[in-house]
Amino acid sequence: MTELSATDASLALLLKQQEDRQSEKLEARRAQIKARKMAKVKYQQEEKIVTAKVESKEEEQLEKRKISEDYVRKLFKHAKRNETPEDKEKRLEILNEYLSDQYLQELADLLSKQFMETDALLKKTMHKYMEESLHELSAIKTHYKIDYESLEQLKEHMSEEKYNATLKNLKLNEQNLLRNTDLIVQRLHAEEEAQIRKELDKKHMKEQVEFRQTLSVSQAKIRRELVGESTLGN
Questions:
Q1: What is the pLDDT of residues 65-92, one digit of tens each?
Q2: Is residue 186 in some structural domain?
Q3: pTM of the model
Q4: φ and ψ at 167, to 5 degrees?
Q5: Which domain holds residue 36?
Q6: How many domains in the chain?
């Protein structure tokens, strides 16, 4: 009778321990879901920061263009009295040199801005998936740690052969899940990076076309305003 009572007490304790293990798994799952939500919020905040930096750079470029054009206007505003066609062509030639320098500088600024945007978004995406991989792999290890502890609690009620087989199966499943999860995260990272590059290439090409068109119109207006029509300015 005493042995039966001891067995019942042992089984009751074992059941309680198993319930505790399940509670630990649920808590670990909640922590994993919370980590995913926090990572998503962080990613969105970082994306806003990159967007703000790009917009600030664009505003800076527009302001620099205005300053450059005002400088050119002041420099070439007044022509000599009785200016000859040759003088006019010479003045236009010098003006074109200034405008050419302006074009090269603005193009360099645009390419620098585009490089900054691409670099920032790709780094942000890389960090996102590094953190995601860390969270997912950590969650898997936590899950299996609980399973290993549960198995240890059951060890005295199992044959050695069954215990060893179960332990081996757990370790194999853990390694397979860790490997597959890592491969999935790598694949998702590669796919998102490729999509970002594709979208940015399209966006940047459009920006470069618009830049050339806008600056061409602006510089043509300055030539007419300061020098007038001339074949050299066309």
A1: 888 888 888 877 776 777 778 878 888 8
A2: no
A3: 0.73
A4: -60, -45
A5: 21-73+88-136+191-227
A6: 1
